[in-house]
Amino acid sequence: MKREDTIEIRWHGRGGQGAVTSAELTALSAIHENKFAQAFPSFGPERRGAPVLAFNRISAEHPIRVRSSVIKPDIVVVLDPGLVTLINVVDGLKPGGWLIVNSTRSIDDLQSEFSGDWKLAVVDASSIARELLRVNIVNTTMLGALIKTTGVINIDSLKEQLEVKFGARAKANLEACRKAFATTVISSIKTGGQKKVRTFAVENLAKWSELPVGCVVTDVGNTKQFCTGDWKAQHPVWNDSKCIKCGICSLFCPEFCISQQKDGYFRANEFYCKGCGICAQECWTQCITMVEEA
Amino acid sequence: MTAKRIGIESSLAVAEAVRLANVDVIAAYPITPQTHIVEGLAEMVANGHLDAEYIPVESEHSAMSSCLGASAVGARAFTATASQGLILMHEVLLVAASLRLPVVMAVTNRALSGPLNIWGDHSDVMIARDAGWIQIFAENGQQAFDQTLCAFRIAEHQDVLLPVIINFDGFHVSHVIEPMHFLDQKTVDEFLPPYRHPHALDPDKPVTMGGFAMPNMYTEGRKSLDTALRESKKVILDTWKQFGDIAGRYYKPVEKYQAENADTLLVTVGSYSENAMDAVDKMQAEGKKVGLVRVRLWRPFPYKEIIEALSGATNVIVLDRAISLGGPAPVCSEIRAALYSLKDRPQVVSIVGGLGGRDISPANFEKLIATALDKIKTGDAAETIMFGVRE
Questions:
Q1: Is the pLDDT of residue B109 over 60?
Q2: Which of these, B134, B84, B164, B142, lies nearest to B274 by C-alpha position?
Q3: For A45, which residue in chain B has the nearest alpha carbon?
Q4: Would you call B314 helix, strand, or coil by DSSP?
Q5: DSSP secondary-structure letter at A210?
Q6: Shortest Cα distance from B309 to chain A (angstroms)?
Q7: Cα-Cα-Cα-Cα dihedral of A208, A209, A212, A215, to 10°?
Q8: What pLDDT is recorded for position B310?
């Protein structure tokens, strides 16, 4: 049974954004403060860009024995702005709990996405990370927002952990964290304030007796229904005036999702494009720019 | 009907059963601990007596992989192995079962390292106990021949579609020349319908085999496999009945010998059952109330038949030809578990013996039974007795 004083955190990110590192640093900082803490990832076939989860449990008083998933978090942190409309990030979030989001959207705009009794915090962590770390990896930046809103760990203990983990790069990461601490905006969410109700996919799982012999998959080719485009944090944008229609982008695309249009120029199929950026890297005339997802 | 009585080595009799079953693919690694089964089959294929693909693979892992691939396209596939060979095959054993591919394999049971030993012993197949295969034990060459034919029919039955291992003891059966009766080709053809798999690989009707399952599906996958294995018993019983009707030799999951009115029942698996029969005959002639129960069907485990056979006894002595290092012997622990829910359950003594080719003669069986009864008398029957070990 979960002890009453245990705080549970669920981190939403994409493979490669560092959600697992966020959870690790949070637990290590809490342990450094002589608290009890856990950090663990969701165990599965994780891929760069695919939505991933990481979790924390923190208790000031009691050793933590529960090793199950976090189902009813006290705090949800969303590292990737695009996930808010893709995944039900508030699933199981306790009344009065915190939803902390990296987004360029205004807090009013984000409030209208949800209906429930929660506290909301927003910070443009991507801009901070790009400015101070020169890369869109927001894990350490978002820790600033977590510390400001919830105080589950303090920034001095995090500083020590950053130094252990990042060495010379700790300074910039701490700076990003402090900037997020300073710029996080706080508000709240009310029940019924939602403007647009979104529905999220619910898995319809077979009973054992419904499985075909040998668990074979008879509807072959169903991976084409798999929207790998959901994984991307950036998408390619072509400047056709520089394009020489050579097709190198299409040739190098590992998803085979770039094709030539009737006018001879190239475009990616956004349903499958994972935003890997190989096309932009390979383009001879540098006519492709990778642009952040909204 | 049955052909004339002939003398032949048991391994070659199994090869003959495989030829009569008209298999499409045989894949085997031809070096020790292999037996004459695949040597005989290689000769038949080379001489044109069997129209099959014979694949001399580079390891047992590949042997089972090849059988699995062959079975997946709807070909009847067979292999044989033993001892370390079976162990090397292990990863693919589990895949064949979970893909529900009805490969048939003869295992001439032999010991495992170490010390290095490939003589008769059940350790090899006991480690394969949980692999999802149907497992049947034969006690002599005739039974090995019969059960090999039955195995194809059981495995390929549309309600089963599971791989089958036919176990018979290395050397004590595999290398022994015995008298036996074969069936003719026409009889076998009538007994054994052609193999069809509902999802056989076919470019016109593609399927994915061997996909992965997340934690939210794996349990259901295992439940469906477990249920198929448990429910295969019905087809096994039906097949043995039909086989008995054409061959005159009937088989049961658990078979009794002089067990009526016996206070003490010895439980054996495999060829040593025949030694034990001689011992039981002698002891009964001396007025001792001793009988024999032999386990033929090992997977699915025949709970009902075990309880029916053993529940009336005062003492049950289970001989395992395998040691579970640091734990209870496999056959005995399952029998104990099966009897545990009975209100008046018999005393059960576990004996490990006959390891790595160590002989247990009929005279030794008398000694073994006396040792076990002594243990019950002195009240320390809980411990496994290692029979014949030099102390």
A1: yes
A2: B142
A3: B214
A4: coil
A5: G
A6: 33
A7: 20
A8: 97
pLDDT of residue A231: 81
Nearest one of A253, A244, A241, A245 to A280, comparing CA atoms: A253
Of A209, A213, A218, the CB nearest to B161: A213
Q: Residue A95 — pLDDT band, cuts 50, 70, 90?
A: very high
In this prediction, what percent of chain B has a pLDDT beyond 70?
Answer: 99
Residues from chain A that touch B216, judged by Cβ atoms under 8 A, are: 203, 205
Which overall architecture, per CATH, does domain A224-292 show? 2-Layer Sandwich (3.30)
Task: For domain B254-386, give its CATH number from 1.10.443.10, 3.40.50.920, 3.40.50.2300, 3.20.20.80.
Answer: 3.40.50.920
* pLDDT at site B382: 86
In this complex, do B206 and A220 lie within 8 Å of one another by their Cβ atoms? Answer: yes
Identify the CA nearest to A166 among candidates A18, A49, A15. Answer: A18
The complex's ipTM? 0.88
pLDDT value of position A224? 87
B224 touches chain A (CB under 8 A): yes
The pLDDT of residue B225 is 98
Residue A211: strand, helix, or coil:
coil
Query: What is the nearest CA distance from A38 to chain B, expressed in angstroms?
Result: 22
Q: Which CATH architecture has domain B2-247?
A: 3-Layer(aba) Sandwich (3.40)
Q: How far is B334 from chain A (nearest CA, A)?
A: 26
CB contact under 8 A, B216 and A209: no
The answer to whether the Cβ–Cβ distance between B220 and A207 falls below 8 Å is yes
Q: Which residues pair with A123 in a beta bridge?
A: A102
Sign of CA dihedral B147, B149, B151, B157: negative
How many CB atoms within 10 Å of residue B289? Answer: 15
**Mean confidence (pLDDT) of chain B:** 96
